[in-house]
């Protein structure tokens, strides 16, 4: 296992694209409210129709600040950023998740995003990740190319994953053997209001279908930040009720 | 009064708790106290906590996240920044009014009514198309008024007050006609919503069920709505309107009335609905726009944390097409579940696939409607229960002409009769298979991305069902010795009917999961070879399994002819035809898959298709990731990457490989020609004749295309003296390849590489 990570790390070093001499890459680090936060927020929300609240950024940066990397120019202007998390996936493998990745448009095509991803992946490997997942739009070819060149595979197509109606691919990179055999458990979301952010109004539809979990997933998906797109075969939530 | 009632109730709880458990009692007492305090809030008056709050907030560093361990990302995502116009749907910009400035009670011109109705039709179909009600139907101020929590039965624009009798024509048009139309519309939202939500599977990504805290006039009966629509029709005749305008409004009211009737199951005439809608369409140009009757300001009062979104703009032409499509889908759903198709499980399975592959794919409501027709009760047709369907499936595939699984055997009650004993075991197996079997139909009622994903989840379940089937087959053999025939290696083998049946369905799903992978474009060019190879492997398993069944069927036929059991003979003959058609189709799949694996493999050997750099990946882990859905199978373990490499080794040089592709395709075409001759009864495609013919045509075209591409490859290689090129000889400089995206393929499941000579620049 550790040899895996070593291999991967050394490959990265070898492949590192030079020529961005004027850029330097730094981790966000342990600082909770870094002076870069507004810039990060601004850079990421540029591509979004509906912005994330500040809490979303804090959620990631407060807990996984070491998995966030920034590309800065000579004057310490933010040129690119990657935001990630790392935690057990449904009680199973330790899953790294790339939540946000953005570079300033005038700097694109220089391999900055690849450098950011590599740094995040290396850090996740160092922190003993089993796998790394993410989603990206099916027609975002530059993004697909970056990840696929690093070794990610498309494992699922997620129809209308984003609230803007766009479809996504789920991409995954295994870092250790035996992941498919590792058991996972369905998430324990109780039957939930459709709009998960409201206190219960009592009138939840007597329902079935993809209720709470999927809605949450969709809300999260709209924000492009969570890998919880409901995969439950049993969408009635019976699985959660049974003892798994 | 609830405010007084609650503390009392908790007090009671505390008393009861005292007898049972002290700590419970303490908790209940505390709760009661807290409730009392909370409820007496009003009495204590309001106090300003701004300063205390500010002081408390100063204790925290900026950005400090205070959360317990259960605080999830979802909650973080759900947070809003109040007064941010892009997040806070309740935000009112300076100078703007909170409510829309439009009086829904005022009388309107008839042509304005037409416009409102048509706009509602546009918004309603947009909802079916996946947009939330908040952006569509709920933006109508008339609808909003009827749904207002202050409104009450009989739900009028005057908050439940019935308008007086002295109404002008224009007022009548609003208070009688438009109101009735809106009531009808609300019920036509409620009923599809119910159909969608009562299915086991539906997709939230395709359809927004959220009501934003509104209720859809739960207390109003559909009869009352129908009556209101009838009154409205009478009203249109009584007010003084030009003939064409009156007709236009009537057509719209009739559409609503008819739509309500089909939703209520009072009628099944969806095609009549199309006619009604056509009438509305032909008079649309009469409409006089009244945009003020709609406003996205209603979102300010809807219960949601979704950011404010503009009201949707849908063109009438677009909406009209969508409505026509919806009705046509419904007509087809009815047709594909007609009694004569439902008699045969395999015709029905083809029918569900045919429905899923209508272009464009039917929407959520239509798919839920089909699901409801299939699985809404425990009967699939008037005289066919789901249990019968399953039994017929087993019988058609593996036990035709056998007393085992004969429905008559299930009627025998003599406990010692082996037929009774066997039926009990088969029945018990069927109980275990039941849900998963019905899922074979249910899963196909999803969007196609989801079909693939639910398939991958069902594979391990079917694999464990195979274990149960094996055990049951053993039991059956123990009770009544089953016939054995010499197997391929000379050792005697038994049919093991239930194992064979389960395996057939399992391998079908496995193969389809791979094929849907091609359709959903999840394989990169360098993965095509392995995935087609795997598909070829599973297809071989399938056709071998079918041939195994076929041998026993032929053997059974010999016995039956002697015994002159004509019913069994007819059954067996029918099964023979059908198994024959399956063997031909699976062999075609296998040959096509092997040919494509060969061609893609060759293109990789020659460096024409090359993998991405993949600096972090390891070959074995990539295999693991790709094979994940099949990785945990016990009965058909996924082939290892080494096995894959081994089979790729003996493929020889370029011309040998192209030769092999051509040979395989030649045989595949013969199979297709043979299967084409089979009747709908023989190959069980009753009711889906058109789709069947189209599918075969597409497969034939794929075969032709494949041969064209290999000959193209040969031609280029000859020109460059590379006919004998083999692994390691790069032809990158002379050959280039493009892989058609799904929409540009002859068949969604078959990616035929387009080969051309690389032009030197």
Automatic annotation (TrEMBL), chain A:
Gene Ontology molecular function: protein-N-terminal amino-acid acetyltransferase activity
InterPro entries assigned to the protein according to its UniProt record, in alphabetical order: Acyl_CoA_acyltransferase, GNAT_dom, NAA30-like
Start-end of Polar residues biased regions: 1-11
Region (Disordered): 1-20
Gene Ontology CC, one term: NatC complex
UniProtKB keywords: Acyltransferase, Transferase
Span of domain N-acetyltransferase: 26-176
PROSITE patterns xref list: GNAT (PS51186)
Recorded family membership: Belongs to the acetyltransferase family. MAK3 subfamily.
Full protein name: N-acetyltransferase domain-containing protein
Organism: Salinomyces thailandicus
TrEMBL record, chain B:
Domain NAA35-like N-terminal, residue spans: 62-225
Subcellular location: Cytoplasm
Cytoplasm in keyword set: yes
Keywords: Cytoplasm
InterPro entries cross-referenced by the UniProt entry: NAA35-like_N, Naa35_N, TPR_NAA35
Location of the NAA35-like TPR repeats domain: 355-719
GO cellular component: NatC complex
Keyword Cell cycle: no
Protein family per UniProt: Belongs to the MAK10 family.
Protein name as catalogued: Uncharacterized protein
């Amino acid at each position: 296992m550790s040899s895996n990570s070593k291999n991967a790390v050394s490959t990265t070093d070898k492949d590192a694209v030079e020529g961005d001499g004027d850029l330097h890459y730094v981790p966000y680090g342990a600082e909770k409210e870094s002076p870069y936060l507004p810039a990060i927020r601004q850079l990421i929300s540029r591509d979004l129709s509906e912005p994330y609240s500040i809490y979303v950024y804090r959620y990631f940066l407060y807990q996984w600040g070491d998995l966030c990397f920034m590309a800065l120019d000579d004057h310490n202007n933010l040129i690119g950023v990657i935001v990630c998390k790392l935690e057990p996936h449904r009680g199973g493998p330790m899953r790294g998740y790339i939540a946000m990745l953005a570079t300033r448009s005038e700097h694109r095509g220089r391999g900055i995003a690849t450098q950011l991803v590599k740094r995040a992946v290396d850090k996740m490997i160092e922190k003993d990740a089993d796998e790394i997942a993410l989603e990206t739009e099916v027609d975002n070819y530059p993004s697909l190319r970056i990840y696929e060149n690093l070794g990610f595979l498309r494992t699922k197509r997620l129809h209308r994953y984003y609230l803007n109606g766009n479809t996504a691919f789920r991409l995954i990179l295994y870092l250790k053997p035996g992941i498919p055999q590792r058991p996972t458990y369905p998430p324990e979301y109780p039957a939930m209001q459709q709009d998960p952010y409201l206190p219960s109004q009592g009138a939840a539809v007597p329902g079935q279908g993809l209720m709470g979990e999927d809605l949450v997933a969709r809300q999260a998906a709209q924000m492009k930040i969570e890998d919880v797109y409901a995969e439950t075969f049993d969408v009635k939530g019976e699985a959660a009720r049974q003892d798994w | 009064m609830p405010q007084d009632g609650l503390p009392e109730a908790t007090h009671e709880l505390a008393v009861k708790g005292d007898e049972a458990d002290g700590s419970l009692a303490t908790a209940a007492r505390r709760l009661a106290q807290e409730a009392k305090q909370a409820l007496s809030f009003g009495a204590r008056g309001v106090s300003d906590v701004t300063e205390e709050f500010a002081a408390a907030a100063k204790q925290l560093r900026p950005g400090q996240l205070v959360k317990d361990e259960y605080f999830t990302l979802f909650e973080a995502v759900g947070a809003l920044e109040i007064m941010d116009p892009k997040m806070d749907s309740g935000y009112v910009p300076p100078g703007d009014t909170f409510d829309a400035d439009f009086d829904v009670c005022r009388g309107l011109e008839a042509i304005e009514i037409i416009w409102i109705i048509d706009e509602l039709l546009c918004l309603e179909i947009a909802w079916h198309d996946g947009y939330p009600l908040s952006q569509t139907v709920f933006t109508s101020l008339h609808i909003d008024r009827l749904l207002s929590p202050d409104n009450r039965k009989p739900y009028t624009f005057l908050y439940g007050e019935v308008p007086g009798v002295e109404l002008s024509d224009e007022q009548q048009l609003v208070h009688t006609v438009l109101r009735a139309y809106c009531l009808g519309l609300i019920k036509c939202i409620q009923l599809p919503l119910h159909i969608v939500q009562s299915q086991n599977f539906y997709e939230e990504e395709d359809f927004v069920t959220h009501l934003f805290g509104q209720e859809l006039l739960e207390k109003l009966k559909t009869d009352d709505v129908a009556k209101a629509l009838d009154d409205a029709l009478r009203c249109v005749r009584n007010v003084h309107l030009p003939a064409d305008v009156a007709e236009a409004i009537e057509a719209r009211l009739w559409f609503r009335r008819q739509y309500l009737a089909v939703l209520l199951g009072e009628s099944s005439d969806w095609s009549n609905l199309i006619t009604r809608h056509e009438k509305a369409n032909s008079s649309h140009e009469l409409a006089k726009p009244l945009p003020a009757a709609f406003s996205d300001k209603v979102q300010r009062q809807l219960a949601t944390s979704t950011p404010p979104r503009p009201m949707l703009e849908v063109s009438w032409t677009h909406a009209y097409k969508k409505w026509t499509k919806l009705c046509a889908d419904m007509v087809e759903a009815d047709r594909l579940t007609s009694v004569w198709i439902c008699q045969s499980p395999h015709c029905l399975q083809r029918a569900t696939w045919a429905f899923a592959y209508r272009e464009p794919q039917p929407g959520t409501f239509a798919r839920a409607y089909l699901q409801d027709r299939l699985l809404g009760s425990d009967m699939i047709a008037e005289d066919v229960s789901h249990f019968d369907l399953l039994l017929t499936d087993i019988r058609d595939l593996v036990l035709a002409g056998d007393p085992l699984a004969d429905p008559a055997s299930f009627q025998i009650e003599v406990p010692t009769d082996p037929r009774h004993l066997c039926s009990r075991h088969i029945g018990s197996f069927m109980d275990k298979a039941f849900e998963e079997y019905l899922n074979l139909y249910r899963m196909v009622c999803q969007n196609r991305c989801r079909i693939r994903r639910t398939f991958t989840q069902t594979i391990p379940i079917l694999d464990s069902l195979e274990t149960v089937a094996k055990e049951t087959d053993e039991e059956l053999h123990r009770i009544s010795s089953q016939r054995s025939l010499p197997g391929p290696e000379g050792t005697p083998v038994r049919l093991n009917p239930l194992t064979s049946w389960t395996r057939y369905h399992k391998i079908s799903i496995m193969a389809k999961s791979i094929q849907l992978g091609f359709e959903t474009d999840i394989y990169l060019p360098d993965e095509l070879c392995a995935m087609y190879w795997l598909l070829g492997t599973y297809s071989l398993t399938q056709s071998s399994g079918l041939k195994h069944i076929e041998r026993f069927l032929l053997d059974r036929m010999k016995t039956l002819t002697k015994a002159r059991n004509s019913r069994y003979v007819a059954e067996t003959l029918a099964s023979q035809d059908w198994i024959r058609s399956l063997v031909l189709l699976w062999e075609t799949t296998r040959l096509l898959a092997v040919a494509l694996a060969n061609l893609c493999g060759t293109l990789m050997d020659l460096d024409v298709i090359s993998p991405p750099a993949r600096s972090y990946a390891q070959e074995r882990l990539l295999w693991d990731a790709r094979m994940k859905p099949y990785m945990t199978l016990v009965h058909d373990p996924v082939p290892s990457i080494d096995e894959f490499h081994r089979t790729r080794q003996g493929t020889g040089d370029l011309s040998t490989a192209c030769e092999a592709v051509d040979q395989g395709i030649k045989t595949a075409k013969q199979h297709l020609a043979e299967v084409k001759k089979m009747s709908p009864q023989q190959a069980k495609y009753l009711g889906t004749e058109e789709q069947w013919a189209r599918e075969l045509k597409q497969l034939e075209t794929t075969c032709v295309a494949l041969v064209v591409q290999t000959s193209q490859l040969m031609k280029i290689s000859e020109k460059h003296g590379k006919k004998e090129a083999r692994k390691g000889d790069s032809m990158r400089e002379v050959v280039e390849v493009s892989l058609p995206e799904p929409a540009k393929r002859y068949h969604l499941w078959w990616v035929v590489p387009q080969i051309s000579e690389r032009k030197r620049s």
